[in-house]
Amino acid sequence: MRKTHLFALILLSFTAITWAQEKQIEVAEIYQGAFRTEGMDALRSMKNGTQYTVLNTNRFSQITTVDKYDYKTLEKVGTVVSSADLADIPSFSSYDFSSDEKKILLSTEVEPIFRRSKLGIYYVYDVASKKVVKISADKIQEPLLSPNGSHVAYVKNNNIYIFNIASGETKQVTEDGVQNKIINGVTDWVYEEEFAFVRAFEWNADGSKIAFLRFDETNVPEFSMDVYGTGLYQQPHVFKYPKAGENNSIVTLHLLDVASGAISSVDLKDAYYVPRIKWKNHKDYLSVQTLNRHQNQLTMYSVNAKKGDVSVLLVEKDGAYVDVTDNLTFLEDDSFIWTSEKDGWNHIYLYGEDGSLMNQITKGDWEVTKYYGYDQDEDKIYYQSTENGSINRGVYNISSGGDDKKGLAVTKGTNNASFSTDFTYFINTFSSAEMPQVYTLHQAINGKKVKDIKDNSQLLKSLEGYAVSPKEFSTITINGNDLNMYMIKPKDFDPAKKYPLFMYQYSGPGSQNVSNSWMGANDYWHQNLVAEGYIVACVDGRGTGFKGRDFKKVTQKELGKYEVEDQIAAAKKLSELRYIDEERTGIWGWSYGGFMSTNCILKGNDTFEMAIAVAPVTSWAFYDTIYTERYMQTPQENPSGYDDNSPFNYPQLLEGDYLLIHGTGDDNVHVQNSMRMIEALIQADKQFDWGIYPDKNHGIYGGNTRIHLFNKMTNFIKEKL
């Protein structure tokens, strides 16, 4: 479909939505998938750069295949592996190629542990011989093929093993792994949650060495969480969880010589956290990133794996904190590309092999939001940024010298690219507040569109009969800052009438809710409320992201102070509008947003008449070390920052209607937070409403749960606001 045709369709669709006899979006429809967008299956570019693979599952036979497609035609050109040809594997849920693409890891019987970690039964499939080998009869974690595809390293019961594919022999590398004490090769809970990785080992370029992290969590306090299940007795789930100010795991770096089995330790001096390890292109050199406990100094070391020598490559300091990313890229000569906020905005830098700064590649009062990679042949760096406005995202390329910049996909809205391995092509995903996802194929060097792939015109057609109101984007000046905002008004909006105001926010450090992108589940729910006669508004206050370092980090050591001030002030200013009923103002949020909505109805009890908090933090002393101390330091160092912004310390301020919701199986924001809030409110003799979801985690989902939860919140809003 041509772009002009699609835009015309969208215009006609929204015209139809405006004038047709409209239905109201219902909660059950949202969570039963009635408005699900058509997506692209996760594709992986092959090394030849002209083809990609996709995991497909036949919904009738449940046979899974890894199929190969051509970028230029988007046509299927073959099947790499099919479960129909594998006697012992009726289906598989994921796959990973070896570096030479001659072998594939297949995963089956996968079960989650925490947010990112999982256990499973894994196989190695040989593409040429079509033979398949089971790695272990037991469930294992994080298997990784060696570069030449001859071995698989993995973790089982907190120890590292190496499986020889040809001989079928398995060698246990470490011996000291013990649950809730010693972990080798995978991360502990807090690293997984906050540094966003699980596998803590890596093969070097020729497979002769493995670098791995060892976690000694012996002195980390344990957290116990009851799992009620369906049995006669509940079962305790006990795991190590370091709350703010408590002991973290002692993390050390080790090098395994695969041939001899010898393990050596690397002295990283006073390193407290080790959030990233990455081999350089030279097989004997490893890069290691470390952080101090305050996370305001990041040091990147270069480790000579042969000699054990350690030298400093780069030191990054910040008065607040330094973000950890995956944007590090080593070039052929081991010079490297890196992103930093050192000039006040997140930008791309080029460093020499010795760590000397060669060039700041991107510059300006805007942020690089994604780094896609570097095409060394064409000397082009590919990235996404906010150059087109902080609520938009565009895709660009630029030379390593910082010139010859080209916009590749910059239509106002959200553009996100997936590049072929050799940067010949990219598939762009575009959406905006008016347009659901559209997928197109482009040439990477100049952004020229090759062809349309897929759009969501069918979704727009299905929405024709529903009452859907547009987001109206603007800025609102609050406490000296122009804050991004959107407002959604009823379709039959009458400026002479008075409407209740319902505010939504998250507000956590570096986050963004006000973005020019298509609707998610919460947006559809907001449409339900708007159709009932509410005005919904969202304001990204101080501390949120993509408006520079200073705007984001102003909340340092005071989480919940400036963000709450901004939401209260925004609500007051919006209440001055003649069509807003200042006596009917509500706010809601989830997680950090629940912490915020709770604080708002307490500290803003003259502004908010109602609040809903889902899975809220009620004291940062209850949350984990890495996240909390990054922004707050420890409770011992910053007691007022913790106490002054912890809502259970001032329950007596509650005047309005308050609904508190939590899942008992939340391993992230523990239900302890809500229990302490509940007790504080009871002792302050404050009436409120609450809901507890048994065994549900931080997402509170599964079965009928989301429908029940959002119907509960909807009914509360209708009754109280």
From TrEMBL:
Source lineage: Bacteria, Pseudomonadati, Bacteroidota, Flavobacteriia, Flavobacteriales
Source organism superkingdom: Bacteria
Full protein name: Dipeptidyl-peptidase-4
InterPro entries tied to this protein: AB_hydrolase_fold (IPR029058), Pept_S9_AS (IPR002471), Peptidase_S9_cat (IPR001375), Peptidase_S9B_N (IPR002469), Serine_Prot_S9B/DPPIV (IPR050278)
Signal peptide: 1-20
One GO term (biological process): proteolysis
Keywords: Glycoprotein, Hydrolase, Protease, Signal
PROSITE patterns linked: PRO_ENDOPEP_SER
Peptidase S9 prolyl oligopeptidase catalytic domain ranges (all copies): 525-721
SUPFAM superfamilies assigned: alpha/beta-Hydrolases, DPP6 N-terminal domain-like
The organism of origin for this protein: Maribacter caenipelagi
Domain Dipeptidylpeptidase IV N-terminal: 98-436
GO molecular function, one term: dipeptidyl-peptidase activity
